[in-house]
Amino acid sequence: MKDVRIKTALISVFSKEGLEPIARKLEKLDVKILSTGGTYNYLVDLGVSVEKVEDLTSYPSILDGRVKTLHPKVFGGILARREEDHLSELTKYEIPPIDLVIVDLYPFSQTVAETDEESEIIEKIDIGGISLIRAAAKNYQDVVVVSSRNQYDSFANLLDEKEGNTSLEDRKKYAREAFAVSSRYDSEISRYFGGGGESGQFLVQKRGEKILRYGENPHQKGAFYGSMEDVFEQLSGKELSYNNLVDVDAAVQLMSEFADAPPTFAILKHTNACGVAMGDTVLEAWTRALAGDPVSAFGGVLISNRAIDLETAEKIDELFYEVLIAPGFEEDALDFLKKKKNRVLLELKEFYRSEKTFKSLLNGVLVQDSDHRTETEADLERVTKVVPDGDQIKDLLFANVCVKHLKSNAIALVKNLQLIGMGAGQTSRVDAMKQSVEKAKGFGFETEGAVMASDAFFPFSDTVEIAHSAGVKAVIQPGGSIRDKESIEFCDQNNIAMVLTGVRHFKH
Predict the structure, then answer these.
(1) Is residue 456 assigned to a domain?
(2) Which of 185, 238, 276, 499 would you call most buried, defined as having the most Cβ atoms within 10 angstroms of its Cβ?
């Protein structure tokens, strides 16, 4: 089937974060945008050309917003096959075909976690949004669906790459993800109700509970509340421990950044990546990731963004590891890996990214939005006389992702899309810089020509001075220090390129 050109889009989202670039790209591509409610107002405030769904349906939003998009003129435009009989019906009833649906559902599970007020929880059961997702996913032959804000960045890239066209492969991929979103959402609601009771009363079951062998240490009790089975299927191995789960989450969050990248492998220890690398094959990516720190890799958690083949499995088996995570395993590779009964094998259902992060402290809980910001080349401000070349830009962006997932203070050294040294969890950025260089040289890497990323700005020029001594040729950092000029001037004096992102990525 030929590519489908997006001509009309329906946007109805709860979270607007990250939506602006998509809306502006669609407008530039002369896509007609339909919207309603808060999303409509948001787009109008941006100055984006948008039409009300109510003008299409001739019905206002009613019942306190419970009914907005549930109308034949909306669902007809989504569900119609682009065939003569369906198209003639669309013409007869004056229904425009809708080629793109963007939805971000009401945050049901988040609401359950934050309140016991049943009426508030019930109002966060999305009806119109989930229906739009299912309808668009069903008609993936002709319609593309973006079903979560986690997909905003990848879809914006798709718009850039294909200038408003989508292939059948693209649409089927997004449909698959949409049904996963729908399934998970319905499971969350089902778990909340838990089943029927007397006189129509529901049994409330907030989240599934899994008692762990122990917590972070054997003298601590531990339990997991949630639905990890929505993220992965355990194919083999012993029961996951508290520490396993913490590392698995860190691994999945990191690899979600590389979900659509070439073959990429990462090795994590105590939530920090000690090896990350890309390659032309999964085996090459694994070999390069392991080389980054083969000592720390012992007993680590491994993750790939591609299915594991037999050749790679045999090489991985040479290392003692706790958990191996991948979106798939070839049959002969799985049979081989299962021979070691205690090794945990997890097959990812999706590259999950948590919406919120929680931390208990001071007799309470801190809650924040998860850090989903990932900088692109367009975000980089060149501030030095020497500007990075194309390969350096790729390495800088790769390093920026790596350092984002290291504990602060953090430094990442990268060369040819391979993490060759890192400093993490240090009390000074200078110590993190020294540690990254020592690690790289300790494992035989030539740091001359490497690039360096920092999770926060440099208060003094001492960090870039150490980087220069190691042969670093390009630096990426947020900027924002009142003494940025000192670091920039040092780079200018020593022919080092520096770019600023304007975004700090602390991780405590």
Answers:
(1) yes
(2) 276
